[in-house]
Amino acid sequence: MSVNLFGRRSALFLPASNPRAVAKAREAGADLVILDLEDAVKEADKDAARVAAVAAVATGWPCPVAIRVNGFVTDWHGADVEAVAGSSADFVVVPRVDGPAVLQEVLALTGKPVAAMVETALGVRRAWEIAESAAALIAGTNDLAADLRLPTSGRRPALQTALQTIVLAARAAGKPCFDGVYNRLDDPDGFSAEAGEGRSLGFDGKTLIHPNQVAPCHAAFAPLPEEVARAERLVAAASGGAQRFEGEMIERMHVEAAERLLERAR
Ligand SMILES: CC(C)(COP(=O)(O)OP(=O)(O)OC[C@H]1O[C@@H](n2cnc3c(N)ncnc32)[C@H](O)[C@@H]1OP(=O)(O)O)[C@@H](O)C(=O)NCCC(=O)NCCSC(=O)C[C@H](O)C(=O)O
Ligand SMILES: [Mg+2]
């Protein structure tokens, strides 16, 4: 099965063990939904969550839906991967990926596209190899902050190198990439600022933890009306080679970027 993960602005996480959240996620308007079996689910609920996730993905979704399995060093990983293999999930998310081997194994066992969470120092170091085997990269900023022993506040600046490495690796491999989650549930301004920064860094979209983050995420990742208007003018004006356009030099790559932006806006 193949699913196109490009052009997706939002990926909404929720615990597979929470039926009310599952119901809400169907109508949240996110571009992707990820039913979590890992950190959002208590140990006592792992088996029930796995069953619930398989049942949930079997019914109709308005967008591609994934299951995030537990990490490969855990007792639940094998059963999770087996369950995903027999499920209708469109893709699978693997946490704490520190090299391509686990992705290749999960791909072989499930036959589904595998999105890799890069959320350890080693994972960032190996982001290039991981990206080659992944269907998409997802920055796991909470785990990464913990792995880097960052203080609990003001972590984002310290993550810049890792975030840029993830974007570079994804782009070099021609894969989409998603920024990490914003933990503060009641801080729309902070969310929008971080989502805008993610777009500036080059991410395709952002992972989310609450339905109320979907609309501001889409707003942050949507091209601005003035960007669309400029791109339309630029494409119309392009004549090949270097030329002057509204006081700036443009060449082929600017035309291609404008075409990508227009495609995204559509
Ligand atoms: C964080 C939450 C536990 C907060 O829950 P709560 O206080 O109950 O939220 P609300 O009262 O505002 O909920 C209102 C209704 O919305 C539904 N809801 C809440 N969150 C979601 C969601 N993510 N998707 C769908 N629906 C959701 C509630 O069920 C309420 O519905 P109703 O009862 O019918 O009114 C909660 O938001 C939550 O669980 N969020 C997701 C947590 C999660 O999935 N975490 C794992 C991914 S994050 C991560 O691990 C990133 C990475 O690995 C890293 O390292 O950074
Ligand atoms: Mg994590």
TrEMBL record:
Keywords of the record, alphabetical order, are: Lyase, Magnesium, Metal-binding
| InterPro entries, per database record | Aldolase/citrate-lyase_domain, Citrate_lyase_beta/mcl1/mcl2, Pyrv/PenolPyrv_kinase-like_dom, Pyrv_kinase-like_dom_sf
* Lineage top rank: taxon: Bacteria
Q: Where does the record place the HpcH/HpaI aldolase/citrate lyase domain?
A: 9-211
GO molecular function terms noted in the UniProt entry: lyase activity
Query: What cofactors are annotated for this protein?
Result: Mg(2+)
Among Pfam families, the record links this protein to:
HpcH_HpaI
Has the keyword Metal-binding been applied to this entry? yes
**Similarity field:** Belongs to the HpcH/HpaI aldolase family.
The protein in question is named CoA ester lyase
> Which organism is this entry from?
Sphingomonas arvum
Native organism taxonomy: Bacteria, Pseudomonadati, Pseudomonadota, Alphaproteobacteria, Sphingomonadales
